Amino acid sequence: MSTPQPARTPAARSTEPDDAALDWFVRCAGGLLGSADEAAFQSWLAADAAHAAAFARHRDNWCLLDALPAEGVRMLKQNLADDKAAAARAAPRQRAWWRDGSSWVPQGALAAVALMVSCGGGYLAWEHGQQQPVYTQRFATERGQQLDVVLPEGSRLRLDTFSQADVTMYLDRREVRLPQGQAAFQVQGDPARPFDVLAGPLRITVVGTRFAVRYTPGVPGRAGVHVAVEEGHVRVARAERSAAGDAAVELVAGQQITSDMAGLLGTVSAVPAAGIAPWRESRVSFDDTPLDQALAEFGRYGPVPLTVREPAVAALRVTGTFDPRRLDNFSRLLPQVLPVRLRERGGEVEIVSAGH
């Protein structure tokens, strides 16, 4: 007679799909599935409705972690790192850090926290999830065009002519890359998700403020990065610190700063009366700007039927505010404020010295 075997309880049976679901979830969240693994995963899901239910439960618990306050997330990540290091040293120990955080961890998320500590890949899955964008979009304008954009989290972005902005949102930060052009920002405050603008060699970091950034490497005399603040404050620093280290500059409302092409920051100065971004009202402002650079600025908004060949004329300085859509007004005013005249020849208008 064979020896009777103890019957498996329903509770014991229920742990099998749960354990397997945990293993599949960690591998999926960590991006660890190959093509063969993906086929096996789909077969496992289809084999039993309990499998899909268990997997969905782990996924939903994971999503609850998004509701944790910033301090809770910080504590969680630190303690997970500690647990991972302790496991690597093969020094088993019991931790009850989640009990210390019970005042801020939602009940559903508590299960997810315990899940993450119990599985070897949990910390990697967390880090992987934090690095995955939740929103990406590219915005661009043609010459003479401007664009207003409301981002998903409520911030506003306005692009000037011939500009491009690449927006990426993560769970713990917001990032805009400005490969070229000008942009004005009105950032929705969120201390848990800093807002970074990457323009050329600089990183501009804010929480909530209104400011403008210009990066036009192809425009003579304006190849560096310019940052001007209208409200709040921003932090300006090199995107990549040099070996010697670079001090960041904190700008407050009414201040501006310009860097060179390498990211070396100049002196903080006051925002001019025209404001941080006069282009929002279809104006360009010049303050003792060489004439050839002024013409290049007009060229960002459309064709410029004016040329200047004489170096002495190109170096003459222009001050004033103009509508870039009405270059005819600028042309008519130019001989009245500078010692020049307009010479038309072969359908081309050249700015020459008044004595020629």
Arithmetic mean of pLDDT? 79
Q: What is the correct CATH architecture of the largest domain?
A: Sandwich
> Percentage of helical residues?
25-40%
Order of helix and strand elements from N to C terminus? HHHHHHHEEEEEEEEEEEEEEHEHEHEE
Q: What top-tier CATH class of the largest domain fits best? A: Mainly Beta
What class would the helix/strand composition place it in?
Answer: alpha+beta
Sum up the overall morphology in one term: elongated
User: Could you tell me the radius of gyration in angstroms?
Assistant: 30 Å
Q: List the uncertain runs.
A: 1-14, 91-105, 117-126
Oligomer: single chain
Q: How many DSSP helices?
A: 10
CATH fold-level assignment of the largest domain: Jelly Rolls
Largest sheet: 13 strands, mixed
Quantity of strands, as a count: 18
Portion in beta strands: 25-35%
Count of discrete structural domains: 3
Give the CA-CA distance, first to last residue.
122 Å
Q: Would you write up a description of this structure?
A:
There is one protein chain. By secondary structure, the chain is an alpha+beta fold. It has three domains: 10-131, no CATH class; 135-270, Jelly Rolls; 282-353, Phage tail protein beta-alpha-beta fold (3-Layer(bab) Sandwich), CATH 3.55.50.30. Helices cover 33% and strands 28% of the residues. The protein has helices at residues 10-29, 35-47, 49-64, 70-88, 97-100, 107-118, 122-131, 291-299, 311-314, 327-337, and strands spanning 135-140, 147-150, 156-159, 164-169, 174-186, 195-199, 202-206, 210-215, 225-231, 233-238, 249-252, 255-258, 269-270, 284-290, 306-307, 317-322, 340-345, 348-353. The strands form three sheets. Strands 1, 2, 3, 4, 5, 6, 7, 8, 9, 10, 11, 12 and 13 form a 13-stranded mixed beta sheet that branches. Strands 15-18-17 form a three-stranded mixed beta sheet, with helices on one face. Helix 1 crosses helix 3 (49-64) and helix 1 (10-29) packs across helix 7 (122-131).
